[in-house]
Amino acid sequence: MQYVLSIDQGTTSSRAMVFDRAGRPVASSQLEHRQHNPAPGWVEHDPIEIWDNVRSVIAGALSDADITHRDLVAVGITNQRETTVIWDRASGEPVYPAIVWQDTRSQDIVDRLAADGGVDRFRDATGLPLATYFAGTKIAWILENVEGVRERADRGELAFGTIDTWLVWNLTGGVDGGIHVTDVTNASRTLLMDLETLDWSEELLAAFDVPRALLPQIRSSSEVYGVASSRTMLDGVPIAGILGDQQAATFGQVAFEAGDTKSTYGTGNFLLVSTGERIVRSRHGLITTVGYRLGDGPAHYALEGSVAVTGSLVQWIRDNLGLVEAAAEIEALAASEPDNGGVYIVPAFSGLFAPYWRPDARGAVVGLTHYANKGHLARAVLEATAFQTVDVLRAAEADLGVGLGELRVDGGMTANSLLMQFQADVLGVDVVRPRVAETTALGAAYAAGLAVGYWSSLDELRENWHEDARWSPSMVREEAERLLADWHKAVEKASGWVDA
Q1: In 10 A of CB 244, how many CB atoms?
Q2: Which of 58, 234, 296, 375 has its CA 20 to 30 A from that of 17?
Q3: Cα torsion for 309, 436, 395, 117, to the nearest 10°?
Q4: What angle in degrees, to the nearest 10, is found between the helix axes of 107-114 and 135-145?
Q5: What is the pTM (predicted TM-score) of this model?
Q6: DSSP secondary structure code for residue 41 in this structure
Q7: Model confidence over 331-378: pLDDT tens digits?
Q8: Strands (E) located in 185-286
Q9: Could you give the maximum distance between any two Cα atoms of the chain, in Å?
């Protein structure tokens, strides 16, 4: 037997998974890493801790599967997107902590760039609004605020990468010949890549004042970039697939064709609707992104609805409020009440992402009365996830002019049946979960396996997909619309909180 190893480096943890030819998980190992919040709106990770954890979970997965690197045909990587690392090419040391995608410190840079053309100034080229979410503003912040970095970057001494780039560079040798690459899906999240040329744009680099020498080479999502160094437990194994986490989940859901849709429930929620080889520029608050590119083939694109806080809201009430001791307890607590008791939570911890794009919003709990209890709060936490998913789905339907038949879902929160049923109720369509719910890791494995011929075609991958569970709407539609109307009132209350 031969296998593919997938490295899934996420916002809160790193995981390695081994998959067989049927797309079934054979083994897995996972470690959480620390979240650093040195100031309001700031979110940082330690890149060295992440690299150490990745090495540990690789060892754990191989041990769990009772295999070695000789049993692997390829390695695929999927990653938290937009999170920004800049490091010294000679020493391998980061010049600053990784600035996480949720971080909002670069709002002043966004405002400065938007003063000439608004937040949609670069949307035609990049598919993205100007927002702190994307890596370009984070690069600019480091260049402007960390002493000596600008000069070293101009001299070509430093390297930038999203987490995929950081991992590939270390896996392939680091200071001893590490490969400096990214793929089109991650590059499309920087505000620096042109969607049509699939290359760094000189106009955008000039606007953000980012030296080209800092940036990695942009490659496809499925090709052999290099082989793992002898200093890793993967000695000689081809590194052959890279996909940003949400694109990887879409790929793992075998949503390859125009109109295919999935929503991933993780730290945040991310809806992707494939648009095939056609670039569709949203007019309803979504972003346009590269979905995948296989080898020398054409790029495939998608519309995305990015929601910043869903699963991390459960973590917040666990860690900061102590409402539950374990995240899994949220379902039973929410089920202790038949409804939300009029309570709504808007988790705008880093502002609101799609479809609102309101950096001035902040988290709010509204509708509190003496009747409200912790069961109502728990239910409001779960319902906030479902409401936000409805918002981005309706925006996608408006952009494409068609309704959704069903929603394929994946990610850790899909184990919560109460949430999935409520999601079906407020959407008014079936919600379907695949047998392998961890489609992010699976998608990266698929991309790598295709590159080395382990899988022969997309049709073979489609045959691996199997339905595990389905939830159909049971709520009266008028009641669902009333709940959504109250949710939108709560969003209005949360908006405009932060003064300019």
Answers
A1: 34
A2: 296
A3: 60
A4: 110
A5: 0.87
A6: T
A7: 999 999 999 999 999 999 888 988 998 988 999 999 999 999 999 999
A8: 193-194, 199-200, 217-219, 222-227, 238-244, 261-265, 269-276
A9: 64
